[in-house]
Amino acid sequence: MRKFALWTFAVAWLAPAALPQDPQRVTVAFSDPARPKKLVVDMSFGSVSVHGYGGQEVIVETSNRAGIRAPGRREAEPPPGMHRIGPSTAPGLEITEENNTVRISSARSPFAQADVTIQVPVQTSVTVNAMRGNSISIDNINGEIEANNLNGQVTITNVSGSVVAHSMNGKILASLNSVTPEKPMSFSTMNGDIDVTLPASIKANVRLKTDRGDMFTDFDIKTDSAAQPPQVEDNRKKGGRYRARFDRTTIGTINGGGPEIQFTTFNGNILIRKK
Amino acid sequence: MTCEEAKSRMADYWGRSLAGEAEAAFSAHLASCESCRSEVSRVGALWQSLDLLPLEEPSGKVRDRFYEMLGAYRQGLASADAPVRRRWWTQPAWQRAAAAALLVAGLGLGYGLRGTSQPPAEVSQLREEVASMRQLVALSLLQQQSASERLKGVSWAYRAEPSDREVLEALVSAVNHDTNVNVRLAAVDALRRFASSPETRRAVVDALPGQTTPLVQVALIDLLVDFKERDAADVLRKLAADGQVNDGVRQQAQWALERLQ
Amino acid sequence: MAGNTGDNAVMAQVSAGQVAQLAVLFERHHRALFRYFVSMNRDREAAEDLVQDVFFRILRYRASYNPARSFTAWMYQIARNAGLDQARKRKAEVVDIDTFADRRAELVSAAPGPEENLSRGQDLVLLQRALERLPEDKREILVLSRFQGMKHEEIAEVLGCEVGTVKVRVYRAIRALEQIYFALEKEKAS
Description:
The complex is a heterotrimer of chains A (about 280), B (about 260) and C (about 190).
Chain A: E1 25-28, E2 38-43, E3 48-53, E4 58-62, E5 68-69, E6 93-98, E7 101-106, E8 116-121, E9 125-130, E10 136-139, E11 142-151, E12 154-169, E13 172-179, E14 185-191, E15 194-198, E16 204-210, E17 215-217, E18 221-223, E19 231-234, E20 242-245, E21 249-254, E22 260-267, E23 270-274
Chain B: H1 3-14, H2 20-32, H3 34-49, H4 61-81, H5 93-104, H6 123-141, H7 147-158, H8 165-177, H9 181-190, H10 198-210, H11 214-227, H12 233-241, H13 247-260
Chain C: H1 4-16, H2 22-41, H3 44-60, H4 71-91, H5 97-106, H6 124-133, H7 136-147, H8 152-159, H9 163-189
Helix pairs in contact in C: 2-3, 2-7, 3-4, 4-8, 6-9, 7-9, 8-9
């Protein structure tokens, strides 16, 4: 009896339709887990939380009592000659899968107000758009990450790849373990701080702009000598940190330069931390 | 279904592309065949784990070389059609590009040359090729689905010639229509490169009323101030007075008006 | 991203003279193409050269593309030919011993090492090595179906065989991989 070091493949998959699924928890498979995978989430109400895990499928859970409409489950058709009385029991969430993209969207009704937690394979590209919800949080993902929030914080942790994030009213907190070489990134918020942690060895061209806030970093950012030099606070000898404060719009390079990273805020501070 | 047939269906099964009758027949066979069942599970695990192997990525040189080659090829086609036959190319397109690359090494295109030495190209023709390559890269990246790729397209656009109208139009279009805020912001920034053209200034003024995202509105206003664009005064005045507009934006518009007096 | 029909339509445009549209196909496919070449010969520099070569050939032979055919299948046919041509050329090269040492260093993958995953009880280093030791024809068909995600019909076109044959060959390839993997595991344990 050989002991195989790799995980075993569950044959139970054979009859998915037979297994009744909890309407508040649904599992969706990608057409072809071997090819690049993508998750797109569009939420009108409610917070979104996405986590990378060791499996191959997308697991969606929601606290929404109206439940989830998953691919393959249809609304009951009225029998011929008859029509439905009253509103249909609209689901809170709708999930579709096509060509390796899983799309999750919430109905626009305020009854759809609920939080959703999604688990995806670590190597997935993730796009999350939230409107009147609270927060977006994305964790343990290796891929292209896009997050757009209208009112609420965006928190991106323990990721590798590239990030393009925006929040109208809310803080952006991001921490990257490693970055895809040659991919640009961008962080923007109207009202809120941008607090980003990047690998110390990153090579980038940075562009920082805040109209009413300050910018701090412990990286050594080389700016154009013609521009105003930063005010440097060097407390390293006292066991503290190295901080440089910049003027309103700053263009510079880190570690010799590389793809562009943009940091833009109106009312807020920019903090760029070294990992 | 026999074991032989089942074996040839296993890859489809693991890839989840087995359906309908074939799937039913396959499941039926597995139900009655211990050896196939164990094989499906055991070898299936190996099949799945191939996913975990790290993916190789090509270096940036691949893209540079491709666009050089494409640009040079197009130039070659164009000059082949030209009424005055200035055909000083006799080598295949990509070797020509290689020659061009040797001379543009200083422009940071870094390119390993394979093959024999080539006659040097005329400098202006060279510059055209490089410019058209940058244009190609920018335009094709700006059409991509991922915001990150479009951001890259904007940064290539920034390296285009200030006289390149196609790139300018693509950038203005990005400012007005791109679905991603960050791409729009980057595009506004990239328009600085085209400051010398009156079309650009016009486009920025025109873009302002249609833009509803506060951050982008602020970026456009700041750009107008940097351009010292007095023609923007009307638009700015309207913005500053509009109660529907974000407070921060209104204040910025007001400040801009004062700066432009 | 866009499905197969997207590719066919774009290539048809290139055929018709809109040469610049090749850039769209480049952006979509060059990474996968690179990985195919690296899986076959593990020489990254040669793989990059081959990617360039393939797109140049696509340009040169654009008039011969038939829009009714799958673009991917056509592209990989070109890729195989380019690979064979390069291999033929290289056989003739007599490599200096110092160059050989340098080149071997390059053969190590530049991607982050699979060693990181050992803690999860999955021996990916061994798996990678097993894949490299697969006979070329088996490795190729496994790469085309498993990593390039090509359909059996497309692979049949590329390899010039029957669809049924493809399915059997894929099965045999993964079984062979398993044998090699276990042999390596035994080697390691002893």
